[in-house]
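Hello forum,

I keep getting stuck at the same step: I have a sequence, I want structure tokens, and every attempt I make locally crashes halfway through. Rather than fight my setup again tonight, could one of you with a working pipeline run this one for me? It's a single chain of 111 residues.
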Amino acid sequence: VQLVQSGGGLVQPGGSLRLSCVASGFPFRLATMSWYRQAPGKVRELVSSISSLGESTNIADAVKGRFTISRDNAKNTVYLQMNSLKPEDSAMYYCYVPDYWGQGTQVTVSS
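Reply #2:
Ran it on my machine without issues. Output:
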């Protein structure tokens, strides 16, 4: 199993970023996929999940209305669109499928 992330970086408050996670080594179209994040000194927290066909999603209250999870099963890819970013969104973001994590992508929101 491989989860290869891209996107992220440094953005000003109010800006947007899109994270991508390309999966391989398992039947992606059957898997619920998730994004987690972890800020320094804090526990890793669930940001959002999406069901195998994308018909159901959940999103953490802290990012509701600003972040959107989506997937393209033809490309084995899950996305996290992040809008109206705030400094408190700064963290390492991880793609997740049960028992496996992506390599992590740093998101820094700062002026």
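The two ends are 37 Å apart (CA to CA). If your local run keeps crashing, start a new thread with the error log.
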